Amino acid sequence: MSHVLEVEDLTVEFRLPEGILRAPDGISFSVGEREVLGIVGESGSGKSVTALSLMGLIPSPPGKVKAAKMEFMGKNLLKEVEEIRGKKISMVFQNPLNSLNPSMKIGAQLIEVLVNHMNMTKPEAKEKSIEIMKNLGIPSPENLMNRYPFEYSGGMRQRIMIAMAMLCNPKLLIADEPTTALDVTIQSQILYMFRELKEEFETSLIFITHDLGVIAQIADRVMVMYAGKQVENASVEDIFKNPKHPYTLGLLDSLPKLIPEKRKQRLLSIQGNVPGLLKPPKGCRFHPRCSKAMKICTEKEPPAFSVGSSTVWCWLYGREVANNEAAGN
Ligand code: SF4
Ligand code: MG
């Protein structure tokens, strides 16, 4: 599969009066054409900052984005993001009310995007907006154009935001907790809409959520993040059928319905809290909460280990390396 996005060793650093905070801290991932990469982790794990860094939206100072590679369709995002943002890469956020202008009719907001980014005339932009909403299954888009955001429910506003994000036919859509504020029925409608648009517009998707249940419904591949680090990258099948990292297992534990009976005994519930990122634990950042922690986990950060088609950052999968490290080799 050819990649639309390749990221290697991405770190976002914030220099704060209290110290330096890094999240994400050295993560690598890629997104294939029409692929959905789910990024999952508790809040504070660095998911949103990862998304904002791809969009070139990290305020500097205090933020600084560093990466060995951050390439989108052959372009260096660290240098050329301004030309790409809102056109080839767009983003949908959790709360559509913060992104829609409450005092402007929905139609005018959609038209403005196309006039500014795609050099369309107003009539062309209007036609295109209606067409996209129709493609996304939004009912009576002609009517909707003359209304204000407050006249619609949260679910409908989120659909409008998705339509807005799709106006310029992006190659990559980044959605940050887009269904978190919605009730479950509306949530599944919106997830369905995301799945459809992937086919309809041939768009790749990065879908950020704290909810593995949502991941199960939308993702092809998954990156699990914990305290600024990635801990496991795997296909969605492997995440659910053959999870490897103790943190992934712990997250799955909160989804009892999705877990086969036989694995229940093995599961570890996650005690404690996500650590502060100004002074993260030494070694593996998960060690204070991990029931499998070994001595090396408290001393050395685990490197990436390949296990089947998954990549896991955990010493359990590199015992030989761990033993050599312990012996000082
Ligand atoms: Fe647990 Fe050690 Fe693996 Fe970290 S490296 S998840 S502490 S076993
Ligand atoms: Mg977030």
TrEMBL record:
Belongs to the ABC transporter superfamily. Transmembrane segments: none annotated. This is Oligopeptide/dipeptide ABC transporter, ATP-binding protein. GO terms for biological process: peptide transport. It is found in: Cell membrane. It is a peripheral membrane protein. GO terms for cellular component: plasma membrane.
